[in-house]
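Example 250.
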Amino acid sequence: MSETIYPTVAGRPSIVLDHVSKIFLRRNTHSFKEAFVGWIKRARVRADEFRALNDVSFQVGEGEAVAVLGLNGSGKSTTLKLVSGVLEPDGGRVLTRGRVAGLIEVGAGFHPDLSGRENVYLNAAILGMNKKEIDETFDAIVEFSEIGEFIDQEVKHYSSGMFMRLAFSVAIHVHADILLVDEVLSVGDAPFRAKCARKIKELTTQGITMLVVSHDMNMVKELCERGIVISKGRKVFDGPVEEAVEFLRA
Ligand SMILES: Nc1ncnc2c1ncn2[C@@H]1O[C@H](COP(=O)(O)OP(=O)(O)OP(=O)(O)O)[C@@H](O)[C@H]1O
Ligand SMILES: [Mg+2]
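Predicted structure in complex with adenosine-5'-triphosphate:
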């Protein structure tokens, strides 16, 4: 592939991670009882600092679709949460341009006791749409999701696939500039996954910027041109997606 797949270098960056680190505390008490005994003994609760991301830097250009690859626990979801603003970095900077819509966990942001309809309004509002905009887009959201009459049921009775369909449909209809997709597509059935893949491609050609996390290498290769591999919190590869997938297999 040619160098032109990295508009990052020349064009406007949409996402910038600049020497980003994220530290979590890993507590070594395993039970309430141990914690209680520790408290009685006035022992300090042991908490190791654990660096989930370590000095990670990359830029994503406007309209680029980039896969974030790595083994379980390598730091992919942490990376997306930092880009979405759910988490703050402990070192370095995260910059984004425009409206960020994140599908980070299935059903995240959905309230179980509200109906599908109410959740669409709630989520679209959180993502920055006003009532009129949502009214105008509502039918398209429901149509894409194929939820049908279930739209007026409480979402706690939805299957995980139905959840994902509605959440994905909201995310693609809010006119986001950046779309973050973490694994959620994997719960959709084959026809819906294919439909999502087509929609994602369409959005990419319209200039939306995407970060995709998936363990489905075929989907990743279909959706993204570029792949970043993370291993134990460090960026270990950044380049054409085919090579990134090979790097991960090696
Ligand atoms: N809120 C948290 N508190 C403590 N540790 C966390 C927290 N979130 C993530 N971690 C740890 O950070 C590391 C990276 O987690 P992350 O969820 O980013 O992995 P991942 O690459 O998305 O993995 P997977 O493929 O399993 O989804 C893991 O070791 C995890 O235990
Ligand atoms: Mg994850």
